[in-house]
């Protein structure tokens, strides 16, 4: 009986913790989406770890370091019209211990003349008490 109660307490604690991680990561991504939709690239980048090791993979290109990723975004999106409205959907958060999580999902931009979209896989790490993206692989769907 004692073993059963202990087991239930451990499982409940793990579920609560996993649920908490899921919610924290979703808050980070929601804040990113809101920043993007305001035209705030620096705010969007707050979801990424400010480190030289932060990595962004898209197409046949790998970009390393938080600042270089921000510079890439600034080159590609020089106006609110180019940025459009960002939507994340189909988010699946999978924890890997207490300090790492993988997120799969879809992204879509709604712009005046087009609606680019695709999928992403993000690796989050808890750093200084905050969940931040350390690796981002983003793909584009066929138009």
Overview of this protein structure:
This protein starts with a helix and ends with a strand. By secondary structure, the chain is of the alpha+beta class. Helices cover 39% and strands 36% of the residues. The chain has a single domain, classed as Nuclear Transport Factor 2, Chain: A, CATH 3.10.450. Strands 2-1-6-5-4-3 form a 6-stranded mixed beta sheet, with helices on one face. The chain is built from 4 helices and 6 strands. Mean pLDDT is 89; it is low at 1-16. The longest helix has 36 residues, at 2-37. It has helices at residues 2-37, 41-45, 66-76, 80-83; strands spanning 55-58, 61-64, 85-95, 100-110, 117-127, 130-140.
Summarize the structure.
This protein is an alpha+beta fold. It has four helices and six strands, in the order H-H-E-E-H-H-E-E-E-E.
Task: Please specify the SSE layout and strand pairing.
Blueprint: H1 2-37, H2 41-45, E1 55-58, E2 61-64, H3 66-76, H4 80-83, E3 85-95, E4 100-110, E5 117-127, E6 130-140
Average pLDDT number: 89
Please give the count of helices.
Answer: 4
Secondary-structure arrangement, i.e. CATH architecture: Roll
Number of strands: 6
- Describe the strand arrangement of the main beta sheet, using strand numbers: 2-1-6-5-4-3
Q: How much strand?
A: 35-45%
Largest sheet, if any?
6 strands, mixed
User: What is the CATH topology assignment?
Assistant: Nuclear Transport Factor 2, Chain: A
Estimate nothing, just give the exact number of structural domains: 1
**First-residue to last-residue Cα separation:** 59 Å
CATH class: Alpha Beta
* Fraction in helix: 25-40%
Order of helices and strands: HHEEHHEEEE
C-alpha-based Rg, rounded: 17 Å
The secondary-structure class comes to alpha+beta
Shape: globular
Poorly predicted tracts of residues: 1-16
């Amino acid at each position: 009986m004692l073993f059963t109660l202990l087991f239930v307490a451990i499982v409940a604690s793990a579920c609560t913790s996993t649920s908490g991680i899921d919610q924290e990561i979703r808050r980070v991504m929601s804040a990113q989406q809101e920043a993007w939709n305001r035209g705030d690239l620096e705010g969007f980048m707050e979801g990424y770890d400010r480190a030289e090791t932060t990595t962004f993979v898209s197409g046949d290109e790998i970009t390393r370091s938080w600042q270089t990723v921000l510079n890439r975004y600034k080159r590609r999106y020089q106006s609110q019209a180019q940025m459009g409205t960002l939507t994340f959907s189909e988010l699946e958060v999978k924890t890997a211990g207490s300090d790492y999580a993988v997120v799969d999902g879809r992204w879509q931009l709604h712009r005046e003349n087009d609606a680019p979209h695709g999928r992403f896989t993000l690796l989050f790490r808890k750093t200084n008490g905050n969940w931040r993206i350390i690796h981002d692989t983003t793909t584009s769907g066929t138009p």
